[in-house]
Amino acid sequence: MRSTLTVRYASFYGGFFLTAGILLPFWPLWLENRGLGAVQVGLILALGPWGRVVANPIVAQIADRSGQAKTVLAIFAGLSVLAFAWFIPAQGFWWILAISLFATFCFPAMLPIGESQVMGAVLHHKLDYGRIRLWGSITFIVATLGAGRLLTGRDPDLVLYLVLTALVATFLATLLFPQQPDDASKKERSGIAVLLTQPQFVLFVITASLLQASHAVLNGFSTLHWRAAGISETVIGGLWAEGVIAEIALFSVSGFFVVRLGSIGLLGLAGISGIVRWIVLAQTTDLTALAAVQVLHAITFGAVHLGAMHYVARNAPLGLSATAQGIYASATGLAMGLAMVAAGGLFETFGGKAFFAMAAISATGTALVAVLWLQNRR
Questions:
Q1: Is residue 184 exposed (0-12), middle (13-18) or buried (19+ Cβ within 10 Å)?
Q2: Distance of alpha carbon 67 from alpha carbon 179, whole angstroms
Q3: Sequence-ordered list of residues with C-beta below 8 angstroms from that of 260, at least 6 positions apart, any chain
Q4: What is the pLDDT of residues 293-332, one digit of tens each?
Q5: Residue 147 burial by CB count (10 A; 0-12/13-18/19+): exposed, middle or buried?
Q6: Is residue 153 packed enough to be buried (19+ CB in 10 Å), middle (13-18) or exposed (0-12)?
Q7: How many Å is the Cα radius of gyration of the chain?
Q8: Distance of alpha carbon 53 from alpha carbon 332, whole angstroms
Q9: Residue 291 burial by CB count (10 A; 0-12/13-18/19+): exposed, middle or buried?
Q10: Which listed residue, 92, 133, 140, 198, has the most CB atoms within 10 A of its CB?
C-alpha cells in the first residue's frame, strides 16, 4: 500500500518538476529570443508568482470544498498544456503577456492541491514526504541537464516544445494521482478567513515567502548573467543540476532534520545560508565559486520547502489543508512577483550585483524567523 502510494504521488512530482526544470533556467532564453528586453522578461516572469496569488487560494478552496481534488488537478494540468500550446504562434510583448496571464493561472495552481493531498497521506499513512518529493527534484535535474545539452548551439525556440512535452507527461501523471477521501462534515466553511486570523500562521507565511523570494535573481537572470560571462548552456544546466542534487540529498534524509530542527529551525538555517549564497553570487562568476555555493540550494530552497510543508500540515484546521497550502503559495507568489519585477530593473542596471538585494531579503527573513521562534516558545 505504502509503496504504491509513494509511486503514484512521486509520478505527479516527476511530471510537474520536469516542466519546472525546463522553465526556470531556460524560459528567459525563449522570451529573449522572441525579442523581449530584460525589464519585459522580468515582468513576464513575475506573472508566474503573481498568478499564484490569485489562482492558488481560489482553486485550492474549490478542491477542499468539492472533495474532488484529483479531478481539479487533472483539469488544470490539461489547461496548462493548452495555454503553452498557444505560445507557438505568439510574437510581441503584449501577445506573450496575454497568454502568460492564462498560463500562469493554470500551471502553478496544481502544486498546492497536490501538496495538500500528499501531506495528508504522509500523516495518515506514515509516508516519508522527503523521499516522495525527491523524485520531483530528480526529474528537475534530468530536465535542466537534458535541456541544456539539447539547447547548446540550437534555436532557443526549442524550449517551448520541451515544455509542452513535459506538460503532457504531467497531465498523464495526474490521472494516476490518488483521490483522498473527503470529509465534508468536518470542513471549516470560512476557510481563508479562519487561517488569516491566526497571527502565527500569518507570520510563518510572510517569513517563508521572503526566504523563497530571495531566489528571484537566480531564477530569472542567473542564466543570462552566467552566459554573458562566457559560460555555456551545458555548464549552466550543470550548475542548476548541482543545486538540485544537493536538494535531493537533503530530501533523502529529511526525516532526520525535521525531527531535530523542526519547521522553524529549518527556516532559520535557510535564511543564514541565503545571505552567504547571494553575497558570493553577487561578487563572482568563477566556476569554482559558483559550484561551491550552488550546493547551498539544498538549504536555501529545500530546507524552506520542508519546513513549510510540515508546518502547514500540522497547523492547518481540519479540512483546510489545500486552502492553507493555497494561501502559502499565494503569499510566496506575491513576494516572488514583487522581487522578480525588482530583479529585472536591478539586473539591467547592476548586472550580477543584483544578488546583493537578495542577500538583504534573506537577512530580513532570518530576522522574522527569530520572531517566529520566540512566539512559538510562548
A1: exposed
A2: 9
A3: none
A4: 999 999 999 999 899 988 887 777 766 777 787 888 888 8
A5: buried
A6: exposed
A7: 19
A8: 8
A9: middle
A10: 140
Angle formed by the axes of helices 38-66 and 93-106, nearest 10°: 30
Q: Read out DSSP for 338-370?
A: HHHHHHHHHHHHHGGGGHHHHHHHHHHHHHHHH
**Which residue from 220, 230, 216, 234 is spatially nearest to 144, judged by alpha carbons?**
234
Determine the 3-state secondary structure of 179 from DSSP: coil
Return the ∠ at Cα 295 (arms to 324 and 169), rounded to 5°.
Answer: 55
The x, y and z cell numbers of residue 341, run together, are 519585477
- CA separation (Å) from 263 to 120, 183, 304, 306? 17, 27, 8, 7
For the chain, what is the mean pLDDT?
86
DSSP secondary structure string for all residues of 55-99 = HHHHHHHHHHHHS-HHHHHHHHHHHHHHHHHTTTT--SHHHHHHH
Cell of 292: 561551491
Judged by DSSP in three states, 224 sits in helix
Q: In the prediction, which pLDDT does 255 show?
A: 81
Residue bearing the bigger pLDDT, 82 or 330: 82
In 3-state terms, what secondary structure has residue 193? helix
